[in-house]
Design a protein that fits this description.
This protein is α+β, with helices and mostly antiparallel strands. The chain has two domains: 26-101, Immunoglobulins (Immunoglobulin-like, Sandwich), CATH 2.60.40.10; 108-242, no CATH class. It is 30% helix and 39% strand. It has helices at residues 2-22, 110-123, 168-171, 174-190, 195-210; strands spanning 26-29, 33-34, 40-48, 52-57, 60-63, 66-67, 70-76, 82-90, 93-101, 108-109, 138-143, 149-155, 158-167, 221-223, 226-232, 236-242. InterPro entries: Ig-like_fold. It comes from Companilactobacillus bobalius.
Length: 244
Amino acid sequence: MKRLKYLLLLVIPLFFLMLSGCSKLNLSTTKKSYSADGLVSVVKGQASNYKKLTYTVNGETKKVAVDGGHFAISVPVSASDQNVRIKAVNGNKTETKLVKVKKAKALEDYLTFAQSYNYTLLSLGQQNDQLQLISKNGIITHKKNDGTKWYYNVQNNQLMGIATKFSYKDLKSKTGQKNFATDLMIVSKLLGADGKKVLKDFAKQTKNADKNSTKTSMDTITSKGVNYNINLTTKDFYMYITKY
């Protein structure tokens, strides 16, 4: 009987120690600093045994979505470094991680670009496709009358990057080809790039991509310092226009 009591005295503390270890608050990130990927930087990490998980950047705090213990936070890139503070809370326990999103080079002053863009579209009779001249920090969506969507990352009045999505189905029609070519030519010209060269390179790579259905991206197209990165899916392609 004494042996049993002695054994219990050893086992019970060990059991509670194991329980406390299983419920330990954990928070980690894959890196200490992150670079741009398209219009954003994606901060990745893991979290467990928390009651509340948030991140704060530029004075704004938001909840973090977690899937299977993993999270990915998309932070629009800026012309300045940004500190991202991730905080996990469970009762009186708190874990905090601080990471940096590295700065990137801006494409253009946003107001200058928007004014030139609007003037160009007015001259083409597209008065209903105007860009807003004043924009808050963030990624704005510009939906045109032809149904296409263009995304603009604006930070502190600087145009950091532009993105768009087109379906392969649209590109196989004459109307879709015309809309894409016109939009790309306008944007490229306003950014100082050679739109004709970009379209030529794009057409060449698209043709080669059709022969290789496993490709998920195309080679970067560069014209006068402007980079065009293209990601491929089974139905659509995504184009990111940046200077980084």
